[in-house]
Fold these 3 entries.
Entry 1:
Amino acid sequence: MRFKLEKLVHALVLFSEKGVPDLTKLKAAKLLYFADKEHLLHYGRPILGDIYFCLPYGPVPSFALNEMGDAIEKSEVDDPDRTLFLKYLDIKRGFWNPYPIFKAKQKHDPDVFSQSELEVLDRVTQLYGNHSARQLVELTHSEPTWQIANQERSPDGRALIPYELFFVDAPEDARQMLELFRAECQDSSELDAILNQKTRRPAVNV
């Protein structure tokens, strides 16, 4: 799996288009977690291809969180990732809300996602979009995905959340997707090993 910045940007645009209120970095991270989890359980792969960590405020997609943070901060140098953010999203700082909010300024590109990913993002928006960030944090704290990983976390630290933890207490039909996920990860790692071997192979003069 590889993290896909375009999916992050267009997921945020989609959330905003569908009227998700107060789309802060924290709230977006929780919505993305629920979307990744649902798609993984039903289709055997997450949407973002991110790496999840257990933090005090619940599970977070680490690359997505860093990219959102970088987009919010004003950079002194050109940043192509931030440029992509600002092409599709405004970052509002409201009077009543001290935290920056993502607002779509043009439509999302549906071609960035598969049909199943669009369906899951839409469903997560309907189920959780009107929850506050605090409510979403509390919901993720009730999930074994976070609770189990949190046992390994130091008070001020973080702990990796393996995707296998997303399947804890999942229905049996969803757990069957775990084997599909493991097989795809194995195929991907084997392909990466082959490609890395090829790139390390010394050139041969002919």
Entry 2:
Amino acid sequence: MKKIFSCLFILFAALQINAQAIFLGEGKIEYERKINIHHQWESEENSDDEFFKEFLSKLPKFNNTYFDLSFGDNKTVYRPGREGDNARNYSWVIGPAKENVVIRDFNNQTMTSSKKVFEDSYLVLDSFPAIDWKITDETRTIANFECRKAVGKICDSVYVVAFYTDEITISGGPESFGGLPGMILGIAIPRLYTTWFATKVELVAPTAKDFVAPTKGKKSNNKELLKTLQAAIKDWGKEGQRNMWWVML
């Protein structure tokens, strides 16, 4: 009997080790994007106006929307997922980036993004953005994966906090975020009062159709799009700057 228990213990330990050694190369991630609408709009210049305060009091505090990221064949595609509870009624207050589709090809290090920027649609073709990440020792569990914290910066001055797992081997994440030793399952951008956190990871293999790039929109690259945007919103104050950060995610 002791030998049987010993054998079972060894088998169980071996299974645990093997389970921990599994690394995912394909699947599907759902992200919940949460925007603190009140904090975002309270930063406006007219935040002390009584009419503005009344307007703000009628808005929900948070806007929750969902996005899906499929990965496999050394590629990722990020697109809108199921609709959030209040996404339809209040989507106009959260600015751009509601309909972004981002395809990353790690074989040739190129990215194709379909973006709706106010009334115009853009098809942005470019290389991967460079983010100078600083990896820390802090960890947290997201969607049952142990993730390590990293801090980076975009648009020269906007700090980003990311949590990535090396158990998913592709170096991707929501929107155009990536460049860490694994998949980003959590993102926080304090200056946008916004977070993206994975709610679940499914073992669903993507198909070739999932990675077919969009074709509609004005063709551009990140540098050209930023120049166009800066000219259009130069007199918008804080709201214009915030919208620029959203567009360039």
Entry 3:
Amino acid sequence: MKKVFVTGATGFIGSHTVVELLEQNFQVVGADNFSNSKPSVIERVKKITNKEFTFVELDLLNRVQLKEVFDHHDFDAIIHFAGLKSVGDSVQRPQDYYYENLGMINNLLSLKKKNTNVIFSSSATVYDSRKNPPYSEEDPLLPINPYGMTKMLGEMIFSDVSKLNDFKTIALRYFNPIGAHSSGLIGEHPSSFPNNLMPYILDVASGSRPVLNIFGNDYPTRDGTGSRDYIHVEDLAKGHVAALTQLDLMDKPFEVFNLGTGQDTTVQELTQAFCKVNEVNVATEFVERRGGDAAVSFAAVEKSQNILNWKAQLSIEEMCKDAWKWQQYLISNES
């Protein structure tokens, strides 16, 4: 049984990936500092899977704590999710993003065993938004915000170090994960004001916020609002297991794959789909564009389909239904 170290294990994507790993019979050691998640996620993951896993409360910037983990465990692979993740917030706090996101990578590489393979949580924000999508893994990179820069630099660091050491890295460039686990027990639950669209929609639909601010209605899209490649978080989690399998087959030290659906949906289209499938109302208001946002982004998915043998399966409607089911759980259990 392979042992996997998952950083950011109680976060949105991390928790769903831990579920998928446990269901696929991996041995998991999870770590998080709960800066944007809650300890209760641990027990809910165990309830979903009916399996145990080891968890360590840990800040990856603390080298002493991280060294203890590597001293006590021999990992086959690391899946690195931990880090600051908001485009808008990164524009306001660039120094924090560079310090934390790159510092964590440096500590992992400095302290892990040399032959431990890595899956790095990257992002579609690394692409040059001046190019018309779909974005291919071979396209040039030009992030337009500090968050995207930390992901591009992270890829460069892993690529350079992998070539010099006896391990392999896969960087997975996510597009826009939304939805929640179909059980309704885990989902996205930001600790502060929601920076991503779906938690914002959920807040307005549940009445905890009065209106959804839509940042810009003059983009060159079908309805003037920004358009993104939304992917169900359960599909995304399955992509990580596919990447773990690929690590064993790779003949080069570093590889990159997109994880997306290959289709784009505008902010208005997503909001309308959410209201329709869940029979709720979401008040909206157009406001000025947000710094660092591209007009349109969606993935070229042929490489991940052909090499990882992975393809997103779940629809926008299923993403909206599962997200609302998760919100109902929160209202019932954490109000």
